[in-house]
Amino acid sequence: MSDENKQITGQAMGHNGIISYEVDVDDNQVKDLKILQHSETSGIFNQVIDKLKQRIIDGQSFDVDAISGATVMTQALLDSAKDAVAKADVKLTPVPQTNTAHETKNLKTDVLIIGGGEAGLVAGCRALTLGQKVTLVEKNGYLGGATILNGSNVTGTGSHVSAKIFGQGTDSPDQLAQDVARESKHSNDPELTDLMVHNIGPAIDFISDFAGLDYQKAQTQTVEHSVERQIELPTASSYEFIQKVSQAFTDHGGEIILGARVEELIRNQKGVVNGAVAEAQNATLNIKARSVVLAAGGHGANTKMRGAESKGIDYYGPMTSTGDAYSFNGDLDLKTRNLDWYKVYPHGVEVEPGIAKLTTYASKKATDMGAIYVNTKGNRIVDESSAYTNARDAILAQPDKVTFMLMDERTWKQVYDLLILHDFTAKEIKKFFDEKDKLPIFTKGSLADVAQAAGVDPDQLAKTVATYQADVQAGKDSQFGRDSEYLHAFEGDTYYLVEQRGRFATTLGGYVTDRKTLELLDTHDQPVANYYGAGEIIGGANGHDSMPSMMNTWGISSGYVAGAQASQNADQRKAAGDDDTNIVALVGTNASKSYNRKLLHSMQHLFGKEVDFEVCEIKDLPMFNEDLAENEPAAVKALAAKVAAADGVVIGVPEYDHAVPASLKSALEWLSSVEHPFTDKAVMIVGTSLGIQGTVRAQMNLRQILDAPGVNAKVLPGNEFMLPQASNKFDDHDHLTDANSENFLKSCFNKFLAFIKQDDADKVTA
Asked: Which ranges carry the FMN-binding domain (predicted)?
């Protein structure tokens, strides 16, 4: 191998453990980044690693941006690989990167989805099929939210999909609703539960057909459900769901914008929700929408928002579930409920302080095969094969909130396979056994050995095992009445002891919605127009403790309903005519560089959230020629149509030789010859110049032109905005830097909006 061609290996400490990698270099250029082994959440890792690799190769540098939402993992890779490549004496030549100026982009869509998890994607797909233009924004650099950490298991009650799997008549929405109420101890909202159970069937059929999902009977049918109704995808992974549904969404014309964090909602002049402002890399996105669906995650990672119920319980959800929506919804006075409720599972191991990984599938298999739960005193604490809530409550009742799952080697082999299938690696598990003085506790050996390693009373543990073995022989659990189906004797002399801790990923409380339309409600129980909710951030359907599979059931069913309702609302708004004030701004010059263009873009940034503000150019219009009037150029027709449709027009006018530029005069001649779009049109004049007079003569000249026969515009009187010394009044993003000028511009523009409103009122009463 030549010095020019190298395979450089290294290790980085990711979020969940060691990431082993190889950097392929040829002739001092990075050609590839290969991941050899990792223990990160696959659904997240698979989405971000290719993006990271492309950034490295494109820039020929490891000094590139980490992926939002996966910063710990991707930054660790960048830092480690940079060091490894440097130690290998590779001299990379970074590709010069253009400094992309931060810009404000004004986008329009029919339905805006906030959140790229399960609920948001289903809502978006549903709205797409109903004929809407749909834009989805996700603050992370990947899709999936909390869903990506769970399995794909869901209930299929009422679906054709489930009828093929389980047969007809084995289940019903009412029966599912009864199970939800029973398991949540009737803490659920019955009407919201009713919406969930009656819509999950149609939702499963819809999304299966839309995204080509091949659901099958779930391996695990948990005892909380009174009948077999749980289904899952072939991989049992939610990543398959997210991957296929997002692909189908984009294939059908949906737009996904990753790394776009919503900072505030857009509200029109009437105060009605009308879109959102999102901050993305190098851009502020003002996204106007007829309907908005809030499908953001919960607040489990926000320790300041957590209640007392979560104390001492490990968290295994995404660290980006920080409850952002509670900030950007702050001034809407939205109604909430039960923000201190959490979905706590009993099956987890603590991989770092306060952070757990789930072991649900493996733990269920272990107890099916006869494993028992013991505390540090060596006593059993629960019927291990009963509902998860019983095990959870028993674990949380222990002083240290920990129990240990005791099993034989026969059982461990199958548990091991399921751990590997669900987010653990062989190297990681070996490390748990080897590092006996660190958490989590994984130990094997004789009964006395495992007791000593875990700090469990060995004598009492021996008595507990003897009692259990005798109960198995008798076919009856003398302590907890465990079903004899799950009473299996321990085989051999080698035992495995694995810790089990309560852990949660999702919150069960959240915003309150209308129980039929999923419109968000304010504290006066009034619906917030154009604003719908779906998924984890909406509380109530599953009460204080959701059964297994029910978080996915709520996510899919609520997304299905919210998408349909948002679509219906968008159609109604289209039919009624959008009530946003529509402003067209004309750049009054054909020059490629113009401070007046900067001024109009600054106005677009300042006012684009409360009105539709479109900056239009005149530089593509030919010079006016009366001989061509009967064959009006297409560019003239297009601009005339925009002016005619506008509620008001703003003209940014430079000053040439004490008058308007010839190009602007020519444009106005075009717009007053064959067509007359300025007739009775409200117009505001603004201008800026390098000198101290700020286009005063040009503005006077323009007022005369706009008052001429054939033009007949209605120009805003007074309020003359003339910005002098333009060269030091704008930053690199075309934003005004002078606070006094900005305040005066806002005052003038507000008067212009009032002028438009009064003019419209006069036309109605005329």
From this structure: 14-88
3-state secondary structure of 626: helix
Where does residue 3 rank: exposed (0-12), middle (13-18), buried (19+ CB within 10 A)? exposed
Distance in angstroms (rounded) separating the CA atoms of residues 73 and 15: 5
106: pLDDT strictly greater than 70: yes
427/18 Cα distance (integer angstroms): 9
| Minimum mean pLDDT range among 151-165, 296-310, 326-340, 408-422 | 296-310
Q: How confident is the model at residue 759 (pLDDT cuts 50, 70, 90)?
A: confident
Q: Model confidence at 113, in pLDDT bands (50, 70, 90)?
A: very high
Phi/psi for 240 (5° steps) reads -60, -40
3 state DSSP class of 6: strand
- What are 182-198's pLDDT values in tens digits? 999 999 999 999 999 99
Q: pLDDT of 619-660, one tens digit each?
A: 999 999 888 878 889 999 999 999 999 999 999 999 998 999
In the beta sheet, which residues pair with residue 694?
none
CA-CA distances (angstroms) from residue 141 to 98, 319, 443, 727?
22, 13, 38, 38
Distances (CA, A) of 472 to 312, 377, 407, 464: 35, 22, 14, 12
End-to-end CA distance of the chain: 88
Judge whether 298 and 534 are in contact, CB under 8 Å. Answer: no
How wide is the angle at C-alpha 549 spanned by C-alphas 390 and 239, nearest 5°? 130
Identify each DSSP E strand in 214-295 by its residue range. 216-217, 230-232, 255-258, 261-267, 273-280, 283-294
Beta bridge pairs of residue 644: none
Question: Which residues touch 177 (CB under 8 Å, ≥6 apart)?
Answer: 190, 193, 194, 197
The 8 Å CB, 24+ separation contacts for 512-519 are 512/334, 512/335, 512/336, 512/337, 512/538, 512/539, 512/540, 513/192, 513/538, 515/189, 515/191, 515/192, 515/194, 515/195, 516/191, 516/195, 517/565, 518/195, 518/558, 518/561, 518/562, 518/565, 519/565
Which tokens is 641 given? 């149509």
Report helix, strand and coil shares of the chain as percent, to nearest 5.
40, 25, 40
Percent over 90 (pLDDT), the chain: 74
The pLDDT mean for the chain works out to 92
Q: How far is CA 559 from CA 87, 202, 257, in A?
A: 50, 12, 19
Q: What angle, rounded to 10 degrees, do the helices at 238-251 and 190-211 form? A: 70
pTM, two decimal places: 0.81
Dist CA 253 CA 312 (whole Å): 45
Write out the DSSP string of 640-656.
HHHHHH-SEEEEE---B
Q: Are 618 and 663 in contact (CB under 8 A)?
A: yes
CA distances from 52 to 19, 35, 138, 183, 239 (A): 14, 12, 18, 44, 19
Report the half-sphere exposure of 188 (CA within 13 A, side-chain side).
Answer: 28
Determine the Cα angle at 151 with ends 427 and 387, to 5°.
105
**Distance from C-alpha of 292 to C-alpha of 274, rounded to nearest angstrom:** 8
